[in-house]
Structure formats: structure tokens, C-alpha cells
């Protein structure tokens, strides 16, 4: 997977001196790798709690005013009812889907959703992509001391 991301980055930046922000839009596999990382390892596993401001009925349940809800992004990202083989790191799942970072699809909300969602999405994604693209462009990465990629699987 790393090689695939590296090939993509090097292909796009082949005849260029440096990577520019405009080049990032073409890096679809790298974007999928970032999404898959945030699906399995959301930086904020529990979103800022929300509180209902009035009594409500949702799907037959009475929700009293002042009820707090904690949204478990970590659990949603690994829910087998929502994702095929959820424990597997498989960036390709995002290549064929239109799910973005913006919280439009509640299956994938690493930046939250709605009015209190993260205002730093674009800044963060651009920065992460640019740094990763440069690391892949300029360096060849290997694991130390004979560690194999498969040895890392238990870390997910
Ligand atoms: C990968 C990087 C980042 C991730 C995954 C992230 C994720 C989040 C999440 C999950 C929330 C809570 C959203 C919610 O409760 O619905 C949040 C809130 C927020 N984030 Fe980020 N964030 C990141 C980077 C940034 C950056 C770079 C900035 C500013 C430059 C930023 C500014 C904020 C602010 C101000 C809030 C509070 C919004 C509010 O409560 O109305 N974040 N972020």
C-alpha cells in the first residue's frame, strides 16, 4: 500500500521540482489512505457531547430536554454493520465511494458533523497530504530490524 501511494505521488510529481498544493487534488490513493487511517484511528474518538435543548421524540423514543449524547466515532468507524471487514486497513474502500471528510455521511465523521464540526478540515487535510506526499516523494521507507508489515497488523 505504501508503494502504491508512493508510485502515485512520484508519477504526479515526475517532472516537477517540488510538490505544490494543486498537485494534491490528483492524489486519490493518498487521500484514501488518509481516510482509512482516520476511520480506524480518529483523532477525537468521542465527539464533543451534544445536549438536547427541548423534549423530543426520535424513532419512538422520548428524549427529555438536557439529555446528553456522546458520539463514538471510533466505534462507528469499526462497526461491521457499516463497513466490510472493518478491522482491515483497506484504503481502496474509499476509492469507489463518494464519502468525503465533511461529515455529510455519518458513517465517517473524523472531523465531526454539522454546525459544531471542525472548521480546520481543509487546512488539516491539505497539510497532512502535503507532508505525507513529500515524505513519500523524497524517501524510501522500510521497517527497522527486519520487522515485516504483517507484524504491524495487530496494531490496528
Ligand atoms: C487531522 C486534524 C484534525 C482533526 C481530525 C480534527 C477533528 C475535530 C473534531 C472531531 C472536532 C469536534 C467536532 C464535533 O464535535 O462535531 C473538532 C473541533 C474543532 N476543531 Fe478540529 N480537527 C483537526 C484539526 C484542526 C485544526 C488544524 C484546527 C484549526 C486550525 C481545528 C479547529 C477546531 C475547532 C476550533 C473546533 C471546535 C469547533 C466548535 O466547537 O464549534 N481543528 N476538530
TrEMBL record:
The keyword Transmembrane helix applies. Signal peptide: none annotated. Its cofactor is heme. Heme binds at residue 118. It is a single-pass membrane protein. GO terms for molecular function: heme binding; iron ion binding; monooxygenase activity; oxidoreductase activity, acting on paired donors, with incorporation or reduction of molecular oxygen. The keyword Iron applies. Keywords: Heme, Iron, Membrane, Metal-binding, Monooxygenase, Oxidoreductase, Transmembrane, Transmembrane helix. GO terms for cellular component: membrane. InterPro entries: Cyt_P450, Cyt_P450_CS, Cyt_P450_E_grp-I, Cyt_P450_sf, Cytochrome_P450_71. It holds the Pfam family p450. It is found in: Membrane. Belongs to the cytochrome P450 family. This is Psoralen synthase.
Amino acid at each position: 500500500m505504501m508503494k502504491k501511494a508512493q508510485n502515485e505521488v512520484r508519477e504526479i510529481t515526475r517532472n516537477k521540482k517540488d510538490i505544490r498544493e494543486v498537485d494534491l487534488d490528483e492524489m486519490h490513493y493518498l487521500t484514501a489512505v488518509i481516510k482509512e487511517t482516520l476511520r480506524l484511528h480518529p483523532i477525537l474518538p468521542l465527539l464533543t457531547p451534544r445536549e438536547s435543548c427541548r423534549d423530543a421524540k426520535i424513532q419512538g423514543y422520548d428524549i427529555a430536554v438536557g439529555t446528553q449524547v456522546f458520539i463514538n466515532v471510533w466505534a462507528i468507524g469499526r462497526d461491521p454493520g457499516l463497513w466490510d471487514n472493518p478491522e482491515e486497513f483497506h484504503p481502496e474502500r474509499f476509492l469507489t465511494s463518494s464519502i468525503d471528510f465533511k461529515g455529510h455521511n455519518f458513517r465517517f465523521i473524523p472531523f465531526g458533523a454539522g454546525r459544531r464540526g471542525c472548521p480546520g478540515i481543509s487546512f488539516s487535510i491539505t497539510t497532512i497530504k502535503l507532508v505525507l506526499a513529500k515524505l513519500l516523494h523524497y524517501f524510501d521507507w522500510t521497517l527497522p530490524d527486519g520487522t515485516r508489515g504483517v507484524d504491524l497488523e495487530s496494531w490496528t
